[in-house]
Amino acid sequence: MNESDAIIFVVDDDAAMRRSLAYLFDSAGWQVQAFESAREFLQRYAGHAPGCLLLDVRMPLMSGLELQQELSRHAITLPVIFLSGHGDLAMAVQTMKAGACDFLEKPCKDQVLLDAVTRAVARSVEESRHAASANTAQSALARLTAREREVALLMAEGKASKVIARELGISDKTVQVHRHNTMEKLGLHSAAEVARLLMAGGQI
């Protein structure tokens, strides 16, 4: 995952504003998808590409705030930047508390908007990389048996085979077999590598 994979999603019921924002981001080299309503975005968003959501606050049927809440309910972590034609401090605080990256007032200078998008995309790409790493680690760890996973966790703590054998109530030779099988299944060569994989998979 990197910035070139990112998509800037624009949701605004003002057609002229959508065209203007799409042109700005396209000219800056970003991929852009524009939607006239929050519901249209929800229907078409695939949920896999990194990027950010540039969101108008006041829209008919479903407001930007309501869309933010809907994304949260579905555990969609796409960074959100709000654009509002009405400077409202209470609303800005509310959106930021709910996890928005930025709250900008219309009209907004192009460079300010581009800088905000760059920050949001960097955050999204990092989150996507972390999620991909976690998924890869979890898939690898799923190949281990329950006993191999116990041995792997103790290996990650730096414990010697004799100590692991004593803690698990099995022979040293059996631990050696489990260590060998664990390393082979995971394609790793050291306890430190096992520890990093377990951390990536959220096991420790």
TrEMBL record:
Q: What residues bear 4-aspartylphosphate in this entry?
A: D56
Can you give the residue ranges of the Response regulatory domain?
7-121
- Claim: Phosphoprotein is one of the keywords in the record: yes
- Pfam families cross-referenced by the UniProt entry: GerE (PF00196), Response_reg (PF00072)
Name all HTH luxR-type domain ranges. 137-202
- PROSITE patterns from the UniProt entry: HTH_LUXR_1, HTH_LUXR_2, RESPONSE_REGULATORY
UniProt name for this protein: Response regulator
